[in-house]
């Protein structure tokens, strides 16, 4: 099977998303771990790595969703129903990403760092991440994603932002949400970049990763 050429801009956007997680979110999670432990006031050993376990959970959840969608496409291909997921899988996938997008929208308001600079960096990285996710979801679900799915995901971002404006949560909860999001971002980026059939653009990915990392560290 011939490899599918991948847009350089998608690989660049993937690199920016990963850079944001590793340079900005994960160091903030390290600081937030102290807040989380003191807030919960529980002397359990596993809390020493609590936010990182949540990040691992985020990665595992979205890996499971991707495998679920891929298996559905393979079953439909074997049954002669086309290279697309089953309808029930579509709804499960879209519902999961709607929660994911709502979380991103929510954290527009409740971030670890509330400065304008932080907002701009976060918004830029997540906007490119949405483009990467959009491409992957369209590949799995085809026409029904364009007709219904993408609009539901756009609405989910707005809903999350509105909920964020109307609520105030503890800093420890923000840390947990960011941890889950960071795990999801890493998985959703790598699943788009790593498969050989995608013919990913390494140099575009590297430029996005290291260029944005340098920008985050410099400003």
UniProtKB/TrEMBL annotation:
Keywords: Membrane, Transmembrane, Transmembrane helix. It comes from the Bacteria. The chain crosses the membrane at residues 9-26, 46-65, 86-107, 119-136, 148-166, 172-190, 202-218. This is ZIP Zinc transporter. It comes from Nostoc favosum CHAB5714.
């Amino acid at each position: 099977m011939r490899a599918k050429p991948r847009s350089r801009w998608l690989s660049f956007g993937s690199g920016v998303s990963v850079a944001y997680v590793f340079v900005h979110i994960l160091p903030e999670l390290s600081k937030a771990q102290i807040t989380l432990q003191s807030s919960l006031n529980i002397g359990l050993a596993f809390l020493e790595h609590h936010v990182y376990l949540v990040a691992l959970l985020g990665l595992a959840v979205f890996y499971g969703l991707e495998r679920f969608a891929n298996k559905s496409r393979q079953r439909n291909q074997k049954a002669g129903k086309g290279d697309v997921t089953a309808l029930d899988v579509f709804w499960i996938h879209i519902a999961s990403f709607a929660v994911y997008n709502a979380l991103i929208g929510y954290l527009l308001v409740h971030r670890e760092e509330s400065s304008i600079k932080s907002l701009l960096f976060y918004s830029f990285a997540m906007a490119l991440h949405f483009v990467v996710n959009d491409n992957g979801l369209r590949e799995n679900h085809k026409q029904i994603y364009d007709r219904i799915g993408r609009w539901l995901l756009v609405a989910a971002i707005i809903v999350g932002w509105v909920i964020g404006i109307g609520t105030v949560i503890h800093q420890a909860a923000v840390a947990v949400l960011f941890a889950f999001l960071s795990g999801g971002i890493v998985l959703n980026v790598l699943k788009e970049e790593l498969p050989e059939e995608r013919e990913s653009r390494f140099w575009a990915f590297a430029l996005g990763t290291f260029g944005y990392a340098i920008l985050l560290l410099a400003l």
